[in-house]
Amino acid sequence: MVADLARLGIGRGTTLLVHASLSRTGLEADIVREALRRALGPEGTLVVPAFTPENSDTSPHYRARVAGLTPGQAAAVRAEMPAFDPLRTPCPGMGRLAESVRTAPGAVRSAHPQTSFAAVGRDAEALMAGHPLHSHLGEESPLGALYRADARVLMINVDFSVCTAFHLAEYRTGAPERTYRCVVRGADGPQWTEYRDAELDDSDFAAVGGSFPWQLAHIGQLGGTFARLFSLRDAVDHAVLWMTEKRR
């Protein structure tokens, strides 16, 4: 697997954001994580999204969960939603590899209660620092830091529809704002917090990725599974141009 990563173009010292779906691949999350760390070396940094829509009542996850319930039943679901704890809250929707990285020894997680990232490696603390509520995936988030660090993106068994990097382009092209709510840890227990940020919309990400110049990506295999590697900056810059032209 380390040899596969090298053939894709992942070298020591790389800062790497990984999206992966390991279901039905036969790949074990911890083995993939350690192969990635060996390929990156001690001077590299491995980053994954560790998003948690489960603690928000303004997320599609919540709306799907309460669909068909009575107001009382929906209120009961909301009352039982756990407060975000960066040290303990899992990110089940992000896949087994993300959980493996989040729980790895020495892992660092950013502070956002909805769109945190987790990282291990040399620059983990610097990349995860900050992450204010009003910047889910904007310039002040780890995604903005990854752009400035000239990170690479590795996609394992997934397509561009889940390419988080494209969200940074939404901020750069003036996406409208909306209100978000989620439950966090307060001094006296769980408390709800409300804030405004860009209205994130990934419904056209497959189309954005479909026009991504093929020569800017390296395509190969990882343990027999399809993998694609490309520059995060290239992806964001391409998405800015696409959204400027296509979105209205």
Automatic annotation (TrEMBL):
Keywords: Acyltransferase, Transferase. It comes from the Bacteria. The keyword Transferase applies. InterPro entries: Amioglycoside_AcTrfase, Antibiotic_NAT-like. Belongs to the antibiotic N-acetyltransferase family. This is AAC(3) family N-acetyltransferase. It comes from Streptomyces solicathayae. The lineage of its organism: Bacteria, Bacillati, Actinomycetota, Actinomycetes, Kitasatosporales.
